[in-house]
Structure formats: C-alpha cells, structure tokens
C-alpha cells in the first residue's frame, strides 16, 4: 500500500487483513491452500493478510473460497 495513504486507510486494511487471516485459520487452511481455492497467488494472500491493501476482485475470491459472506471480511 502506498505510504501516502491516510492512517485511517492503513488501519482499515490492517484490520481487514487480520479478519481474513482469522477466517483462514478458522477454516484450518494454510495460505497456500487458500490461494489455490481462491485461484490467487500465495504472495497475494500474504500481502492481503499483512494489510497491504486488496483489490475488490481478490476480496470476492477470498470470501467465496472461505465460504463466508463478503460483509464478514469488510465490516
């Protein structure tokens, strides 16, 4: 995520990354297994969980792969 983003955006991305990691761990999946299910690269999952921002299409894929409502990941 660019350094020029306001702190509130960086904080929101961090919280979203934590929620995604928690959902992945609750599903007992490794980052690699989630990446395969979501048809994304493992490095994308790593970046998302680190709070480095996320593309909407990636968020949709992750929610579907985890079988959770999208709203649960972005609240």
Task: Describe the protein in words.
- With 75 residues, the chain is mainly α.
- It is built from 5 helices and no strands.
- Helix 2 crosses helix 3 (42-49) and helix 2 (31-38) crosses helix 4.
- The radius of gyration is 12 Å and the shape is globular.
Low-pLDDT segments:
none
Sheet bearing the most strands, described?
none
Number of helices: 5
Radius of gyration: 12 Å
Question: Cα distance, first to last residue?
Answer: 20 Å
The count of β-strands is: 0
Mean pLDDT across residues: 93
Helix share of residues?
55-70%
Helix and strand content put the structural class at mainly alpha
Shape: globular
Q: Quote the beta fraction.
A: under 5%
Order of helices and strands: HHHHH
What are the SSEs and their pairings?
Blueprint (H helix, E strand, L loop, with lengths): L6 H20 L4 H8 L3 H8 L6 H11 L3 H5 L1
Helix pairs in contact: 2-3, 2-4
What is this entry, summarized?
This protein is an all-alpha fold.
Main attributes of the structure:
75 residues, mainly alpha, 0% strand
């Amino acid at each position: 995520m660019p350094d020029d983003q306001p702190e509130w955006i960086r904080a929101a991305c961090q919280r979203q990354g934590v929620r995604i990691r928690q959902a992945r761990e609750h599903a007992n999946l490794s980052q690699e297994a989630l990446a395969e299910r979501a048809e994304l690269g493992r490095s994308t999952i790593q970046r998302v969980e680190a709070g480095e921002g996320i593309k909407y299409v990636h968020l949709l894929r992750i929610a579907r792969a985890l079988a959770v409502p999208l709203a649960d990941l972005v609240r």
